[in-house]
Structures
1.
Amino acid sequence: MSGCLSKGGKEPVEPPIFNCKWTPCKRKFTLKFLLEKHEILCPHNNLLQPTLSPAISPSSVTIPTSEFLSTPTSCTFAALTPPPTPDSTGSSSANITTGRKRKSDGSRVLLSTPKSTSSKPKVSCPKQCGKTFSRKSEATRHRKLCGLTDEEKKKAIKIRFGNDPTHVCCNCGEVFEQTNGKTAHEDRCALTVDEMKEKYKDDPGHFCCNCAQFFIDTSNRQQHERSCGVTKEEMMERFKDNVQHWCSKCDYFSVNVSNMSKHKAACNKTKEELMIEYRDDPKRWCSKCDYFSFDLTTLSRHEAACSKTKEELMIVYKDDPYHWCEQCGHLFFSDVRSQKLHKLRYHTHIDVRTITLQQMKVVHPLKHNNDGIGEEDPLDPLDKENFDFIVKKKLEWADTFAHNKADTNFVYRAACLSHSFSSSSTTYSDFVVGHPEEVGAYSGVKGKVEGLDIHNWHKYFPQKSKPGQAALRGQEIVFFGQTCFKGQDSATQARKQEALEINYGFYANKYKGEKMYYINVERELTNLSYNSDAAIMKMLSMAVRGEPSFCHKTECECPAYFHFELDKMKKVEFSSIDKTRIKKESPPRLPPQKARPQTEEDLKREIDRLFRSLKEEMRLNLETKFNVYSVLIVNKADFPGMSDPCEILVALRTRKGLVVWCYSGKGVEAADGNIHAHHQYGESTIMNELEKGDKIAIKIARMRCSCQRDAEEKEAFLQYTTGVSSRKKSHGIRIVPINIRMEWTAWLRLSDPIRKLAQECGELGTSLYSFADHPYAPLYQEGEFVYPIDVARQVEKGEVAIVKFVDC
């Protein structure tokens, strides 16, 4: 019974593996249709595809059963013609009219043309590429360029239409096959947005009838008007009985019917199921590689950038204004959507009276429209109706943005590989599985805007980041994956999980064994204390017993915190690091390690000891006093010969039009009365300002709070208020905040009256500091916390001091 299973035999669970037939290709697939698609595009396929000669008759072609059951390759049989269709009586009739049915109209019989429910037949590409068209002329036009690369297509179009001015852009000289494409491009290429508005100022088709927003494409204007000024809830109520706008499989709603059709086609289907369903649809597959996408727009973007580096894309799109931001020093975006979002966030004037819900979600209420910072007029409190409306609308904006930021958070995992890794001799998966002791793991928290990558600050400040420091040493950084947390409590849940993984690494590094080591330094004991005792005991047990926290077996039931897929690991690019700064150095040595307890009794004893010690550490950490502190930074050149902070503050009272900077932060109360010690060794915005030696940092206030959460809320209040007021015109000293990366979760914890007070103070242009000679009644006071900060009072208390760093 060779080749058959016995009756009691165990069926195999491993999927079949299909190898590419073209030597020396080593690609492997688990789905046969993927193999077939690959073999057609395989670079090692040097054979000519066989064609069927017209001389071969249909009867001489034998189709094996196995081939008949699988999906056949489409062929054109030139010698075959369909046989005539016989009528029901066995005779033919040339007088029968088809496609119409007879109906009686009293004295005569009429022929009516019914409405056809079937669409017109599609016209296929004459070159059999798989594409279809609604008209024969479109297929003929497509045939002339079918099979050519992008560069070849551009060259062919230039040869044919290069001398016709109706096909050539008057600004950049790009040649277009169709004149309407040239017209649409020329508007964007040759004209600015203001010039286009002027060109179409008398054409209502380019302006929203509700909010007067301008649109280059009139179809975008039509889509915008459907929901302009209307919330999603109102739209759902409007279309609650229209099945075209609701998915019957889930609760998804969409105003756009075409979007709903796309959603229904993919609803409740995995990517693998969609790949099988559309395996014969060339519109869903990249023509250059094996990439699949259900969304055609996503696939089009992929094909444009397929197999190209960022430098190559910059050359390809060097003349395309949709990939560059001229207002930010020619910043490049490989994705057009990223450029549009960037311009909306930082270079678009947002009118709070007509702001949309989507704009509230994605545009930062403190950092929008860079050109407007410091140029806005303070609101007039005497105009109560306008003042109250603006304050209410901007508070709604801030809360919507905060909820959107706090709604989704991730715990991401990455690793730095030792210098023994070489991409030319091994893969990420083989190295991680075969040499775990040469892999340094890292866990962190980020928001949803970062995508499948580590937090961006690692790339902005690599010298202060553990993964960044590894990259500077010439080590390769790999992204493992991430876990998503949703809901208003997602930030807390993500930080709890991050703290568990960091402390697992802290204890696991103490024991010997072939395992990943961990490079996180900050233990996050406050966030760890939010976990239950059972979760902390489990973490300690895993660390002491040597059970891994990361596992590459995706379907196992081990207690690992994260199961990652080996084939989805990807390199983390540190594009901001100059290659000349990279120096190959060995990573820091691990602390001395001890042998792991062997018996179960010894293991339990060690876990209990560590648990009691950790609980005591967390108790002491929770009793630690936290402060909110404020630092003023000035240019030395503005105060020549002055080094005493009180002398500088006295001189500030008489200065007009001077620009100074402020930093509002929180931290553990320092024994020496200074600001948080993390500025000495961690990521420090203040230290970055002082690196050149041309500025002085002065600690103005250090206000004690009841706990860490209270400090987070007070910090959020100061950051938001100073962020709003810095956008207003100043007739005296202009104070610019240098840290407005807010804790939006803490902002939402503030009460409604306190958030309203922060908005009102900011709209009035209230300064963070009061330099008045007479006592100043604070607008907000709670315990030691006061706002605004009375500088004269702080000088009398002896709180004012120069901020000093070891390296400065």
2.
Amino acid sequence: MRRVSLPVCFLLCASGDLNAERMSDIRNTKHNLSISGPGPVRATSESEVCVFCHTPHGALDIPAAPLWNRALSGATYTPYTSTSIDAQDTTAEPGGSSKLCLSCHDGTLAIGAVNVANGQANASISLQGTAAGGTIPEGSGALSGFTRRIGVDLTNDHPISFTYDSALALADGELRDPSIESHIATRASGQNPKPVVPLESDRLECVSCHDPHIRDTDISKNIKFLRLNRFQEGLPGNSFSEINDIVCLACHDKLGQRWVDSAHADPAVADETYKTIPADLREFPAGIAVWQASCLNCHDTHTVQGSRRLLREGSDALGGPTQARLGGAAAIESTCYQCHTNDASSVLNFSLEVPNIEDDFVLARHMPITSLDQPAGVEVHDISDADFSEDPLFLGKGDLNNRHAECTDCHNPHRLQRNTLFNGNGSNLTGTHDHGASHSNIASGVLRGTTGVEPVYGSASFHDLPLSYTLKRGDGGDGASNLAISPWVTREYQICLKCHSDYGYDDNNLYPVGDRPVLGDSIGTTTPGTNGLTQYTNQAREFQAPVAHQGFGSPGDSGADFDYLSNNQRSWHPVIAATGRDGLQRNQGDEDISSNWVPPFDSAVGSQTMYCSDCHGSGTAPGTVVPDGGANGRPWGPHGSNHNFILKGDWSADTGTGRPQDLCFKCHDYDVYAGGDRSVDSGFGRGDNLHAEHFERITGNRVKCMWCHVAVPHGWKNKGLLVNLNDVGPEAGLPPGTEVPIQTNAEVYNQEPYYFNAKLKVINFAQSGDWRPDNCGSASSNPDVGRDWMGAVCQNPP
């Protein structure tokens, strides 16, 4: 009988159906630990290849272990878990053949310690290149994501030893069903074809993705022993392609076409390439494009210690494009900043099309993106599903210490796309909204597929909170309905209101001070006392746009006192819905005054809507809300600004004459409202422009917006966002209809949140375009009404 050598025997046993680019050749892999091995860890004299794992005699009796020649570690492991994983048994200890892998890769046992070698029991084979005690070396650091010394803390490693079945696929919603997909199955004799993602008794183990014996036919390629592609090799599609797709997509379908069209997967968008050093650090091929790196841009199945959800470099430890992070605490933003940063800090070669988000978050005022910024001091953000839903408790409801901002509060990186519309088909020139004549409040592609809320109102009164909120989640697909009542997010404000309403915090609706979040509760946010404010306001309450209040009239339920309901209606910036008040109606049909606004807000006045990010974001040039550089310049979005409240320009008691760069005048024409231009009419007038009239009559030729308009101009109980010191009410902690005495030029009224440097008193609200002097003055006639009151109170205000 002819005898077969041990190495040849095991190579024959290991052979089988492999991908065209895979071959069973352990001799030319790092798993050849013999003296002939090609890796840095190898024996000093032992020539046997298979002995480090297998033996034909004296093997351990372990189920699923092929003649195993090593002891198993007695270590206790900390398994991977998260609030968004649906597997029911991830908290169990690793089992099956995964324990075999961990006998080397957890670093608790010497690699050369085997049961039998050369006829000797409990042998210790001498190796070079090992760590202390002969264990697996740390590589770039045991706590980094660039080591294969995985350790016993598996919280930063892909879960293993859990049941992968139809029930799990159904619960997750973005996993392929093993009962339908033939490439995922428990291996059994006689199977043809064999599953390329083999399970062990319906459980996913290390060997489901890895085969420790294989290499690429090109010996220079590092395939990490993966059974399937390490990178995306061809155009992604709806169904899994063994030839084209990255191994991750064998199980994770990510809603098929949604991932295919996403900005991170579409080759027409994600065509930026990696710099050499970051690619080398990640063991990526030189010049690899983002779409080819695919899932591995953001995720690593064995990532840095401290990261959550397998986010690549997702910790707050020191690191960068050329330096691996070593441990640290979870920091989602670090993963995003690999690419979304300045050119010097990016892992990618220079591109104008990747927004530099990181630099916005270091501006004077910014969302609390880091754990250091946030009240809790740790990353509280915790999604519960593939839609990135989050329990309101984690937003601050019931515990303001949980308030935070993270990239995935607003963006779903698996679904967002470069398109001006969230329901667009594929990619176009930009992922931000169309800032032209067709301006609307429809969410853009970068907001696709995330979560938001729609307020449900029971009253039109400014003083009443919404009754409830409807959660928006999911993705309706290309061409999906863009109605606000749709099940998915269709509006930017729906995302903002998750945190900026009582959906995300408690609100007892008491004013001037209640139990709402306080200014300055997070580092980098606006400090208390700015514009007299100490607390945030409920923006779902403010932005309400009751149908009966659209257009002009006297609906009678605005929240103003009974004596001030005539010709009065609620007013709002058209974030949730349009005002219904066009340029002709605002001037009594005498002249269309749409030109009082700057483009694009001079188009479709009254029917046009707008975004929160038209006002909130990094600073812009005077007369425009468009970020510097346009579509490929500074990013849209309320990430950070050098102006308070993350505004695109200043908004303060000084806003008005002499401040054309301030916020109001990025939409409202400065010359008309604060520059004394009498060549056009305005809604505040009677065939003329009374803003200019006041400019001329007030000492110093000046007007200030807050003398007459509310200090938080989201929405209000009176028309035109006008304050009325004849009717100060519950919004200031006073009974409805309270008159505040203003008798001299030096006097102003300050009461948070809505009155700051306020002067205006309205006796009778006029129709827009028909204002007269006797509409203004003290209700008590103290000191006066009309022009006499203006002369006494407004001739030379502070």
